[in-house]
Specification:
Length: about 220
């Protein structure tokens, strides 16, 4: 079972998500929280696979709560997906930088929410299906200037190539087609790049790809 925690200060939002997720045979909502402080405490107690975290909450906002969760060495396997009302929320890219595995808009289609939860656990999630790859570049353009690429020195040429493709939003299957390799081979290259760079997930690979200058805004056309 995929264990999920819901963190949102709106009871109706949590109730709707809970009904939808609990109806799935492989997903169970194990805890709820009405603010960021409660969310952090609940994650430490219940150790969910995925925490669906609203960005704007009282007491402790979702960004701070996410940083506390993703930087806790005792919670290495908890994935955080941010919830936002607007796709162009100015905090979204900062959420990814804080360690979130991606984000979803609250009005996403029910089947997309379920698919996203499963994808996060599989390690393939990045952004809401409603958010285009162009948006990735937009938020990357707002990030700090590219830093020296010393961190990439341990990567092979192929791993750099794969990381760049992850950076522009391609899935393992799309990378495999682009490089004419099997999806398993593509996944292996992605995993090795993550291990070498100490990246928590694919979302952090995207951040590193932009911040190192390996991928630059505008490449998406």
């Amino acid at each position: 079972m995929i264990r999920v925690l819901l963190a949102d200060d709106q009871l109706l939002v949590r109730a709707g998500f809970k009904v939808l997720l609990d109806a799935q045979p492989d997903i169970e909502v194990v805890a709820e929280a009405g603010d960021g402080q409660q969310a952090v405490a609940a994650v430490r107690v219940h150790r969910p696979d995925v925490a669906l975290m609203d960005i704007r909450m009282p007491v402790l906002d979702g960004l701070v709560a996410t940083r506390r969760i993703t930087r806790d060495p005792q919670l290495p396997d908890v994935k955080v997906v941010m919830l936002t009302t607007f796709e162009l929320d100015e905090y979204v890219f900062e959420a990814i930088r804080s360690g979130a595995s991606g984000f979803l808009v609250k009005d996403t289609e029910p089947e997309e929410l379920v698919r996203a939860v499963r994808a996060v656990v599989a390690g393939d999630a990045l952004l809401s299906p409603g958010v285009t790859r162009r948006l990735i570049a937009e938020f990357a353009a707002r990030s700090k200037e590219p830093t020296a690429a010393d961190a990439l020195s341990e990567l092979t040429d192929r791993e750099r190539e794969v990381m760049a493709l992850v950076g522009i939003g391609l899935t393992n299957e799309e990378i495999a087609r682009r490089l004419v390799v099997s999806p398993l081979t593509a996944k292996t290259h992605v995993s090795r790049a993550m291990i070498k760079l100490g990246a928590r997930d694919r979302a952090q690979l995207v951040v590193l790809a932009y911040e190192s200058g390996l991928v630059r805004p505008g490449w998406l056309g």
